[in-house]
Amino acid sequence: MCRRWFSQWVRYGCFAVLLPFLAISPAIASSSSVKNYRLVLYNLHTGKKISIVYRKGNHYLPSAEAKLDRFLGDWRVHKDRDMSPRLFDLLYALDKAVGHPGGQINVVCGYRSPRTNAFLHRTTGGVAMHSMHIQGKAIDIRIPGVSTLKLRNAALRLHDGGVGYYPDHHFVHVDVGRVRHWQYPPKG
């Protein structure tokens, strides 16, 4: 019976009157429920701050990603790189996990050029020769008002990549590589 009713509506053109409403209705419903993913970052070396929606629902925003790539670029040699969108999602999840959603994340180090990484590897302890920072897949951070230990523990619970704990320098390294963790300097 429903088929016959539907075919009569189509035959007489009545369905065409309803079609725009059927097409618009789901779009209106979904647009109001699309989740915005915002990051608020402050670069400790440059003094610059960015507050940006980088993703809406499952859609990453290319212009926002480009701004984040520049913001997280190597300030020593003025170079940037495409950062992994997974890293942005990790920062978003970590900020939420420490009970600080939408709050400021202080960036100690984002992208490192190979030249900067080689220099830091030679002159600073705890810098890997083939760092994930070079690949745009790592970031060193602090969150104001959140202890480094709490930040590290939250990152470990996420179980989503590498976590380095640098208590003497008061920052945590997170990356989107394989799951692993370390502390520098090592305990004992």
Describe this structure in words.
- With 188 residues, the chain is α+β, with helices and mostly antiparallel strands.
- The chain is built from six helices and eight strands, in the order ααβββααβαβαβββ.
- It has helices at residues 2-11, 14-33, 62-71, 85-97, 114-123, 148-158; strands at residues 36-43, 49-56, 59-60, 104-109, 138-142, 162-166, 171-175, 180-183.
- Strands 3-2-1-4-5-7-6-8 form an eight-stranded mixed β-sheet.
- The relative contact order is 0.11.
- The model is unreliable at 14-22 and 24-30 (pLDDT under 50).
Describe the structure using short key phrases.
188 residues, alpha+beta, 6 helices
Please give the count of helices.
6
What structural class do you assign from the helix and strand content?
alpha+beta
* Neighbour order of strands in the largest sheet: 3-2-1-4-5-7-6-8
Q: Detail the poorly predicted runs.
A: 14-22, 24-30
Beta-strand fraction estimate:
15-25%
Alpha carbon gap, first and last residue: 79 Å
What is the gyration radius calculated from CA atoms? 23 Å
* SSE topology string: HHEEEHHEHEHEEE
Biggest sheet architecture? 8 strands, mixed
Global shape: globular
Give a count of the beta strands, DSSP E runs of length 2 or more. Answer: 8
Q: What is the helical fraction, as a range of percent?
A: 25-40%
Q: Can you give the mean pLDDT?
A: 88
